[in-house]
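Quiz preparation item.
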């Protein structure tokens, strides 16, 4: 069984560096690019089909030469037997219609596969048009918003569960003859029912990781002449869509600062606990504060070098935790009369001030070889 997955590179909006030309067209060659997140679900569907029915998986993309990295990401994160990049200056600035014409020509050159998978929509255009338009060019049945599927090779059909009008609460089961086009919904979840399927999945992922290290050996690049396409019908010239304006998305400014504190610095640690105490304990302290600089509350919590709740395992940072309270979900969980620390010993501790000036403490695990000789348990 041969399956094809269509993927696309989209601007990495996390970087906030998106470049447009004077006509409002995205300059993809100058913009940091990642694989479209929704395409991961199409890759999952193709990998599930490969595990259950064998065959091969082809991943295809259209874009500038830099999209080779997108194909590499697809191969390493999921699985692919071969990669195809459709790339040409004549294809630049294509809208969804011109893109669909180009992709359908590339798929036809491969030989019509049994299944073609595409993501729900891209993170840049947000139209969701390219998949259905490519399907229309190929004159194939289409299944959209698919959340699960199975193939009956003998009957030559694919049966899928899909969301009705994209509504997560309403689903229906549909069937189509092969070859078919499938739009995977973000709710798609692959299933591997047998041990043999799970073993095959593990083996295929290992093979894909090895291939991705030398992905160029599995990559084929086609231009418009390879596909016998007329430049007047592809790229900008073949795009009926006119971009009226573009509003760039700026990178969000950082609003927090962190200070790293070593747990061996007793003075700094004392300042941390003094800063955290009012927020963790619900107040600025109690009248029962110990004279030695520690804080003791009615719940029996005392701090000098650390926190002692009475009968839990002790670690070398001085944190003694009541085991019965380790199910508490927060790093510090406070009741009106007690302060409790979750049993997670730090090697570094950061005090983070948010916009409300309420600090938070971040712990990272301590290496096991620093454990107390008395058998103290690391958490």
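Solution:
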């Amino acid at each position: 069984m041969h399956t094809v997955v269509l993927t696309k590179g989209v601007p990495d909006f996390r970087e906030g560096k998106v470049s447009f030309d004077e006509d409002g067209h995205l300059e993809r060659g100058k913009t940091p690019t990642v694989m479209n997140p929704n395409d991961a679900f199409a890759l999952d569907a193709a990998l599930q089909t490969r595990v259950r029915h064998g065959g091969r998986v082809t991943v295809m993309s259209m874009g500038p030469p830099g999209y080779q990295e997108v194909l590499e990401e697809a191969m390493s994160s999921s699985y692919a037997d071969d990669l195809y990049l459709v790339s040409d200056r004549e294809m630049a600035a294509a809208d969804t219609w011109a893109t669909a014409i180009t992709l359908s020509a590339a798929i036809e050159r491969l030989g019509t596969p049994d299944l073609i998978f595409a993501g729900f929509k891209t993170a840049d255009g947000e139209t969701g048009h390219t998949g259905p338009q490519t399907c229309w060019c190929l004159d194939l049945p289409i299944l959209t918003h698919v959340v699960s599927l199975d193939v009956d090779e003998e009957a030559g059909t694919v049966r899928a569960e899909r969301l009705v009008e994209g509504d997560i609460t309403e689903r229906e089961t549909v069937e189509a003859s092969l070859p078919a086009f499938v739009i995977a919904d973000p709710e798609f979840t692959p299933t591997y029912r047998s041990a043999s399927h799970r073993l095959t999945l593990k083996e295929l992922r290992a093979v894909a990781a090895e291939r991705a290290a030398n992905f160029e050996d599995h990559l084929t690049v086609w231009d418009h002449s390879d596909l016998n396409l007329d430049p007047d019908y592809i790229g900008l010239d073949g795009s009926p869509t006119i971009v009226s304006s573009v509003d760039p998305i700026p990178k969000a400014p950082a609003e927090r600062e962190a200070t790293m504190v070593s747990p061996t610095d007793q003075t700094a640690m004392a300042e941390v606990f003094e800063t955290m105490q009012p927020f963790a304990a619900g107040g600025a302290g109690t009248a029962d504060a110990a004279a030695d600089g520690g804080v003791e509350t009615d719940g029996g919590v005392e701090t000098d070098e650390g926190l002692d709740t009475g009968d839990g395992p002790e670690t070398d940072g001085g944190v003694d935790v009541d085991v019965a309270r380790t199910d508490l979900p927060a790093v510090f969980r406070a009741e009106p009369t007690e302060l409790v620390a979750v049993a997670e010993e730090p090697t570094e501790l950061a005090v983070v001030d948010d916009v409300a000036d309420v600090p938070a403490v971040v712990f990272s695990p301590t290496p096991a070889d620093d454990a107390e000789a008395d058998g103290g348990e690391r958490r």
